[in-house]
């Protein structure tokens, strides 16, 4: 046992000795091994820019600082580099310093193909976007494609310059530093600035102009930055690249990046969130306590208000019932209800009163109610009671009823409605009955008054028509004789007398026409015709009628058509001519010097089948005072209404014009300045006729040439008119035969040949209409049944022309007849 213990002690001592020997050998080897060489230190010069934040900047002590500077210091330390800095002003100077050897490297510059061809670059340590900046109020530059022709700022010798320099049409403005370029953009000296985005945003925020610029479009490129070295520094380039690769992913690099580019600290930090949560919790608890207290108070208040509201509601119900009763009494309106299932009838107090019952007693049954209804009207109520159609639930009808104790039936208006159940069976009917006996009496009086007014209106129209006929007949004789006298050789004094008399006859004729038209318009009986007509004919007749008056006053009288006007329209040519005659006549009457211009133009219209024409009558006359502008279209209104007025007239013309234009769905307006003239505009819609190939142009021609002598038959019972028309026809170069009635006209036409008939309407034995009908039937007349028949009549109401033309007459002449109008009608209708 002892031996074994000694063996173990000896073995342990031997092992310990072995360990000591091994340790000593290692120490000796380490002491006698050759010393390791220390890394060799190398000196380099780094060129940096004086003002290119955050890469390069100069601190308050004049030493370089910045993102690239801090990284370079770390990289230089890890590679045992002694360094100093060469500070220059711009990129051009920095690149030149590396070329010339004054600097060994530039720690941080964009990598471009042009620079790679001349220098060596380390691995990338930063990648940023190269973007386009514009002013905030710039909206016409949205991408780099919009820079063509624009003043674009770039830093001299930068990647942006080399990239944009290849684009055709881009005007590059070179700057040596960021400040000059940025302030030029803000001042509007350049339109855009292409620069690395995070750098420019940092600069803009520092000088507080970040709200005045914006980035547009996608980045021009992703700009990669590395260290720039000469082509001869291959070993140093690899050495720095290896250091940058390992350093970029380190925590120190991230801290330096955040130091210079910055990162906004979030508003909601953990501390702030916890603080806010605590405050909200306290506020919530306080609000809960207050809400509970307020709820109890509110509940008590609501209970009290509910009791008060109930009392007030009951009071309002009572007041409403009282008001309903009073309203039913005032309106003589009773309400009722009948239940189909119980056969019970319920009446309101007013319903009882209407039928003569005491409301305090029981309501009459349905059978008793029916006994008060007139036998002829009971069916209306039975129809409502018997309805089984749920689609018709409402009924309204009038009926007659006989109240208790009365002998005369009264009138009532019933409104009723039927309620149905889900199965479609009627449940009840309820309604109201209103006594309308007073209204019925008023309606009867109104009907009688209307009938009397219509009788008076017809009598008035007949009186006006008769008066017009009776006045026009002698007026035609007087005017005809005056025109015949004017054709003879007269002295100047006598000719003036005759022309004055003719003018007076024309004025009296116009007055008669205006009075008739005004009467028709006021009675609502003026009707328009709708026929096809040529617009050029209307303009020709207006120009021909007034050209002599314009020449006698020495006025310019042009007619102008603007644009392509359709040749043929559908409408009322008679009323259009009347409107133009009134307006053009007024313009010439009130214009002593200058001109009266008539223009017709076509307005744009969405419907191709509709033509909206704008007529303009512009004169240089006396004008209209401002205080008369609102009254000028009134009946019997004249600007110079005093006894000393210069211009005569009734003042009916413009009122009739306005009513005629409105009757044709048109509008009329006036612009005038006293002493300078008046312009009147009116627009009317017409349907475009199918004859659209001809474009309207007024011919403004002189009188048509006279045809050769023709034979004309004159049917006229008045001796003076017969003589006047006969002589006028002869003055126009034709021969005439006169007869006294339609019967004689038929005999003459059967025995002799005539080219045209002037047919009076109102004649004894046989009137002109009867004679025309027999001629058109052509019994025994052969081709003579188609002879032109002109209605020569004193019937000048607006509808007379249409009546005569429908009876088969060819044309129409209203008395008194002017020789010019007679000549026009003869030339138009006589065979060539």
Structural features, described:
- Helix 19 (719-731) links the parallel strand 24 and strand 25 (735-739).
- The chain has 23 helices and 28 strands.
- With 832 residues, it is an alpha/beta fold.
- The N and C termini lie far apart (174 Å).
- The relative contact order is 0.05.
- Strands 5, 6, 7, 8, 9, 10 and 11 form a 7-stranded mixed sheet that branches. Strands 17, 18, 19, 20, 21, 22 and 23 form a 7-stranded mixed sheet that branches. A 5-stranded antiparallel sheet has the order 13-12-16-15-14, with helices on both faces.
- Helix 14 (437-486) crosses helix 19.
The SS-based structural class is: alpha/beta
Tell me the total number of β-strands: 28
- Main beta sheet: strand number and arrangement? 7 strands, mixed
Q: List unreliable stretches of 5+ residues.
A: 29-37, 641-651, 699-706
How many helices?
A: 23
Q: What is the distance, rounded to the nearest whole angstrom, between the alpha carbons of the first and last residues?
A: 174 Å
- This entry's quaternary arrangement is single chain
- The proportion of residues in beta strands is 15-25%
Helix-residue proportion: 40-55%
Mean pLDDT: 80
- Rg is 56 Å
Shape: flat
